[in-house]
Amino acid sequence: MSARVITVTSGKGGVGKTTVTANLSAALANSGKRVVCIDADIGLRNLDLILGVENRIVYDLVDVVEGRCRLQDAIIRHRSINNLHVVPAAQTREKSAVSPAQMIRIANELRPQFDFILIDSPAGIERGFKNALAPADEVLIVTNPEVSAVRDADRIIGLIELTDPPPKTSLVINRAKVDLIRRGEMLSEGDVTDILSIELAGVVPDDESVLIAGNKGIPDLDSRAGQAFRTIARRLLGENVVAKQDHSRGFFRRLARIFGG
Which terminus of the chain is more solvent-facing, meaning fewer CB atoms within 10 Å of its CB: N or C? Predict the structure, then answer.
């Protein structure tokens, strides 16, 4: 069986894209699936830290494409989570060290060995984004329920739609603060999905346990955020799990002019 390649990306940095990649990879592996996550953020790698494998890196993605090692030599198996593996990014190279064609070749070599390949994309729309998008069967766009993050996500969606053929695209709303949403002081899930016109894969609540788990290098799938990642994983696995939405319109009318509505 050939793996599904899912690229996790965002319009801007700081929305928690790498955290989503790490936790969703762990949730899928916890479901019994063989998972490898690739850090495509060359020069700014962080996925290895969040998954606690930073001290075990011998070879990285650039070593593979430049022929200093086999792809198998760069794959690190997580010690605490069965079925979870990591291919780290290079820390001292430029994003131009890897090409879209090379990313496709790496993904194709990994497909027979895994059920899921998750690619942690750099933020923005430059070379790193194109590298991460090239092999994708599907794309998860991560945004926070904030005006600037949503507007940047809208731009990324437009770029993805220009690819031929465009991959299936869905949305993860990260760091949602329920109290602010209820008071109409933060965009609701309904606001964001109305603005972006994109399928919602799930909503992850703001939860300090994510930071604590990231510092320890072991995702906490029993926390509030962890349960949300489990739900997103179940949806990716084809289960009919409803992505809960709050259809409050606290900001929507005011925001319509920002997005041309």
Answer: N
